[in-house]
Amino acid sequence: MRRAGDTPRDASDWWRDATFYQVYVRSFADSDGDGVGDLDGIRDRLGYLELLGVDALWLTPFFRSPMADHGYDVADPRDVDPLFGDLDAFDRLVSEAHAHGIKITIDLVPNHTSDEHVWFTEALADPRARDRYIFRPGRGDGPPNNWVSVFGGSAWTQVAEPDGTPGPWYLHLFDVRQPDLNWEHPEVRADLEQTLRFWLARGVDGFRIDVAHGMAKPADLPDMDPRAGNTIGQHDLYDPRFDDDGVHDIHRLVRRVLDEYPGAMAVGEIWVTDNERLARYLRPDELHLGFNFRLVLAPFDAAELRTAIEASLATAAAAQAPPTWTLSNHDVAREVTRYGDGHQGEQRARAMALVELGLPGVVYLYNGEELGLPNVALPDWAIQDPKYFRSGGQDRGRDGCRVPLPWEGGEPPFGFSPGTSTWLPMPQDWAKLTVERQLEDADSTLSLYRHAIELRKSHAAFAGTELEWYGAPAGCFAYRRKGGGLVCVLNASDTAVPLPPGEILLASDALADGMLPPDTAVWLV
Ligand code: NOJ
C-alpha cells in the first residue's frame, strides 16, 4: 500500500489562489461516538469537502495534549492525541484527501508547549533544566514584569522548588498551562525543525503557524505600556510581548526547511496591523502567507470594509505575496453574529462571502461558515475555554464559535457523532441548518458557497491579482478585478440601489427590478 508520505507533493505555487478550509478538529465530525471530532471523522467527510470545492484543509492541533487550551497546549508535537486517533489515522487521512484532490496543512504551535511536555516537567523538577523556557526571579514579591496573559491575569506564574521553597516565575502569554519557550535555546530550534520534517515526511502540504508574531522576546523583558492591554491593533502603544524583531530569524529557519520540500507552504497567524511590519513576515525568505485580520476586525460598513481590503492589498503588494482573506476562525465570533445575528446577520454574512471570494489571493473559510452558523450563547456549565476562567467569567470565551457542525437529521447531535452527547451542546434549532437540508436547497448558504467557490475556480472573470474601485452610492462599494473583469458590488446601506450594467454571475440574495437590496452583494461580468 502507498503510504501518505509517498504521495508526490505538487511543486507549484498551488497556494497562491487557493481556497483553504479550516477544520476545527474537535467540532467537525466524530467517528467513534465520544462526542469529540476526530481524524477518521474528517476522512469520512472528504466527499463533502470535495463537493464544497475547497483546495486544502487547515487542521487545528491534533497532537498529544492535556487539552487545557483544546490542543494549543502541546505535550508531544510528533504524535496524535488518542482523542483524535493515531498516526495511522493521520496517514489514511492525508492519503485519501490527496486522492480527493485536497491538500492537508496542519497547525504548528511553536510559541509555547503544554505544562505536561517532558521539557517542562523536567524544568519543574530540576532548576538546572529550565533554560528551554523563560524563568525569571520576581521583582520584590511580584512577577518579573507587568506583562499580562492574552487570556487575562498576569503572564507569570511562580513555581515552588522541589524542596518546597518559593522559586522563580515562568512566562505564559496564554494559559498557565502553556509555558512560553525560550527561542534562544538551540534545542528549541532543533526540535521545531524535527517536527517540520516529521510531518512533511508524512505528506503534509504545509503549516499554519500559531502566534507567528510571538516566540521571540526582548532580552531584558521590559514592561509593556499598561494601556496596550490586550487590545489587538494598539501598536502605537508599546507592547514588547509580540512582534519582536528576533522573530524573523525563526521564520527564516522554518522557510529553509520548507524550501527542501517543493510545494510546501506556511501561513502565519500574525496579529499585527501595521502594514509595513506585517509585510516583514512575508519577505521571500520567510512565510509564504500571513493572515490579515482586518476583515475580521471591520464592522459591516462599506467604507470600513473598503479600507480593510485596501490595507490588506497594500501589505500583500509591498511583500509581493498574495493577500490572505478570512472572515472568521475558532478564536472570534462567527460573522453571522458579528453582523447582527438573525436574518440580517445571515444576509450580511452571505454578502460578505461574495466580497471575500471575489477578491484576488487566498481565502481561508472556517468550518460551519458555509452553513451560515451563528455563535451559540452557551450556558455557564457548558463553557470550557480557559479565557472564560482566567477572566473570572467576564469574557465568555470562544466556545460559542466552536459548537460541532450539524450534518443531518432533526435532533442533536445531527449526525456529528454516533453517540448522543457532544463536547459542547448543539442547539435544537440547527435542524434547519444541517448540511443535508442545505444541500437540497438551491437558495441555502451552502449552495451559495458551493456556487461561488466553483465560479472562483473556473471562471475567467477571476483572473489577475489587481483591483480597481468604482464610484458607488453612499454605503456601498464596487470593485473590479483588473485582469478578468469580475465586478463585485456590496450594498451595506439601508436602501436598495440600482445595479451597474453587466451580466449577473451570482447574487447573495434575490434581486428584483434591476436593484441591489440592502445587505446584499452581487458578482457581475
Ligand atoms: C492562537 C490560537 O488560534 C488560539 O486558539 C490559541 O488559544 C492561542 N493561539 C494560543 O495557542
Automatic annotation (TrEMBL):
<dbReference type="InterPro" id="IPR045857">
    <property type="entry name" value="O16G_dom_2"/>
</dbReference>
<comment type="similarity">
    <text>Belongs to the glycosyl hydrolase 13 family.</text>
</comment>
<keyword id="KW-0378">Hydrolase</keyword>
<dbReference type="GO" id="GO:0004556">
    <property type="term" value="F:alpha-amylase activity"/>
</dbReference>
<dbReference type="InterPro" id="IPR006047">
    <property type="entry name" value="GH13_cat_dom"/>
</dbReference>
<dbReference type="GO" id="GO:0009313">
    <property type="term" value="P:oligosaccharide catabolic process"/>
</dbReference>
<dbReference type="InterPro" id="IPR017853">
    <property type="entry name" value="GH"/>
</dbReference>
<dbReference type="GO" id="GO:0004558">
    <property type="term" value="F:alpha-1,4-glucosidase activity"/>
</dbReference>
<protein>
    <submittedName>
        <fullName>Alpha-glucosidase</fullName>
        <ecNumber>3.2.1.20</ecNumber>
    </submittedName>
</protein>
<dbReference type="Pfam" id="PF00128">
    <property type="entry name" value="Alpha-amylase"/>
</dbReference>
<keyword id="KW-0326">Glycosidase</keyword>
<feature type="domain" description="Glycosyl hydrolase family 13 catalytic">
    <location>
        <begin position="22"/>
        <end position="437"/>
    </location>
</feature>
